[in-house]
Write a structure and sequence with these properties.
Ten copies of one chain form a homodecamer. By secondary structure, chain A is α+β, with helices and mostly antiparallel strands. Helices cover about 20% and strands about 40% of the residues of chain A. Strand 2 (about 25-35) of chain C pairs antiparallel with strand 6 of chain D.
Chain lengths: ~120, ~120, ~120, ~120, ~120, ~120, ~120, ~120, ~120, ~120
């Protein structure tokens, strides 16, 4: 992982206000950008997170800053989507999580990557 | 819960006209607004309720006033969505209920919260 | 039920041309209007019917006139949707039926009611 | 069935190039028109076919001509949709087939008819 | 298969960065064109690939060039869609794969072909 | 004009709060319905009013009731649109006015009627 | 002009209810079909008429039948659009008229033809 | 004007970075809400500002707070739209300005108000 | 101009059926493809032609073949759009013509080129 | 202007292939990002350029790199849009130019800036 990448510890959390039930939180971040490690050109994506919190929820402002912190990191589509999912799973220990990175078209080709996780 | 929040008892009901069958009622309220307890800035959301009534249905005008009554309450997205679900479950004792709060984007981030409930 | 409401018997039928198989017929009627029994104001809705015919299909012109016949009847959303479903079930004895009344927004609130029926 | 209706034998076929697997072919024909046998007025529909071929696929140009051949046939919505499905099942002997006739609105009423077939 | 068709070996791959989990990669290529072997007229399609990688992912630039390489090949819709799926299955040995070729309308008829594959 | 038609005098007004400038007020009423004088069938339309007030503005609740009052009046599309324009011109004496009645499709035919008026 | 084409005289009219002002009537007919004189294949179009009536308006049912009457006439896009405009100008003597024939795509090519007429 | 209304002086400004040319700035604020002075019910609108700056531009954060400050003010649609325009004209002295308040539907009626201003 | 480019003479014409009036013909061809002379990669565009015919109209099938004939020609966006316009002006001598080439996005950049011509 | 901003000289050009006529080139770049000089947060925009070339056209790859080069520059919406317009006017000396920067919503507020230039 590149040295300038954000860390799971940057994802501040707060106590889930309704741990007695399963419910879903969806967070859509259309302003993700990183850099292609091969060409140095910027990549743009919408990162969509859906998770069922257990004890912790992610704090929205910290999540926004975490997403922004990828801005000058060189990393491929498949790797960064898996890495963001790993960071969130580590920080939140959610019951369930789905993360999608939907990247803008380049060379006439559009790519998206979707990770599903379940604690059970 | 803030003192100025509306109460479950504000949700007037009427007798379900077809208790012999399971059927669904969907109510979409795009004019929900409350206040962020941290920044004091207003938050806006569409609150969508889908429920299967048992003995009681919620009266539409009372529901509208209940939704409006959150206008100056300081409360977070996750908390208010769970609280409205709790108030409706207490007032209606529905067979099933799903409540979604879809909040407007802020800081380039869109959030929605979805609660599912089943009496069984 | 109000005296001026249409009756199940108004729903003319014809013999299902393919009773040997299960298939679905969808009929969308966007020109439904009735009257709120409390305020006297008109209500507007799209009534969507999906059914699997058994021995009988509903005749389209008769169905249109039946829908129009609610024009000056005073009745609530939940009651009229269940009543139209009941009239169709009585007239057609379908294998399956789903009826949705999607009412226009009033007071910033949109409501729809969906009834599901299965003969088995 | 009216004498001027097209026949199943009009549907030319060719050998399925990948019979070793189940896969789906979808063909949308938005230029279907026939005639109402009661009023003589034209009816317009989009005919959508989805099927899993077994040994045979339908040839596209022959299918287009078959669809056009209904142009002056007097037949009801429910009957013609079932008939086209029957003709295709006879000609192709598909593993699975779904056929939908989505007719334009008349008298403020929109109708569609959907037939599902499975060889097993 | 025509001699000028691209080969499975043209599909360069790289090591899956997250083989420990099942996740999906979607690649949409709206700039596919080949030639009708009967009429010589060009055909245009959007090729959509969704797959769950096992040990290998397809390299995006090589995939783009592979798609472009069909430009002057004469081949039917059903055959080319199955062939692209075969080439990808051979090159990637994915856990799951779905490939859809959605061809532009011709003669008023729109066709799409969808292949599903599962390693198990 | 039918006896049961609403009158210009039903259109209550209030004093324009900004008579010092030309500005536009747009009011869209999608719940207009009247009756075809030939067939007795209901007609549905969206009535869109755009006007530049001079001394008077139309009161919204009175306008809504005026629109509803056409519900059981038998009148043709061209006549009712011109009549509503005449009633508004008489009641408001606006600097400019445009009124459109966009009627739902019947017999596969959609009609709209647009009247433009300028005081100068 | 083919012998089986409809005639201007088929377009019944009624007296303009508001000849004292210029106003516009728009009629959209999405169910136009005729036949290509070269290939015999059917053509489909949406015919959109916008006119400012002088002494006469076109009767909607007669216009619908006139549009339907082109069903089996062999005629090109450019010719039929100009001919329908000519028939309407002759029958209505409108102050202004615009007629558009928007034909469905064939061979991957979409065509529309627009005629403008002004009495002055 | 109600005492709790925001003032023109709340609209902070900064020096136009390109006063040598005419150019347009568009600001859309979909989170406007005020209160109906007659019923006490909340009203919601999108306020869209388009202006050509002269010496001054409006500061975005101050504009957002100004828009939010109408939250508990009782004022009609026509009055508040003209008042916001007046406040902006006083604060910015723009070369040109257009302000639209597009209010949510109530009672089945949607209203918008548009003010145009030109310094010349 | 590349040697393999199509020529103006490929554009067959027929006599304008209504030379007595100005009217517009719009032809949209979404299946244009050529090759980038620098990279050799394919470019895709929708070519939209709007013209007012004088003595001649372009024959649709010949126009389609002319558009297809650019398939393997290496030429830039700006040059090919001007060249197609020149070929049409030479072949048709139209009263007016507008030609737009709207190219697919590459490198995250979308380009279109629009040429306007008037005989006067 | 910040030191790390791109320069007009970065905009490579090529000779206009059709200087004998006025025509328009539109280039849409949805992947613009810069940094807010006050908060340090990233801003995102779509930059749309429409120009009539005189002697020179902008080279697309150089333009893409110029747009990307704003990535870490701190600059306000109004300033950067005017600056990009100035750089293009200096490099291309176009007959006409329009440049729009449409920025993503922040704080519930969406902004766009549009510059128009004409050589005459």
């Amino acid at each position: 992982m590149p040295d300038n990448a954000p860390k799971s510890a940057d994802l501040e959390t707060f106590a889930n206000p309704a741990p007695q039930r399963d419910y879903d939180i969806t967070i859509e971040a259309p302003e993700f950008t990183c850099v292609c490690p091969k060409t140095g050109h910027p990549d743009f994506a919408t990162i969509t997170l859906v998770y069922t919190p257990d004890k912790l929820c992610v704090e929205l402002k910290a999540y926004k800053l975490y997403i922004h912190a990828w801005r000058n990191v060189g990393i491929f589509h498949e790797a960064v989507t898996n890495r963001i999912a790993d960071d969130l799973i580590k920080a939140l220990k959610p019951r369930k999580l789905r993360l999608t990175g939907a990247f803008h078209a380049h060379g006439g080709i559009t790519t998206s990557v979707t990770v599903n996780y379940s604690a059970k």
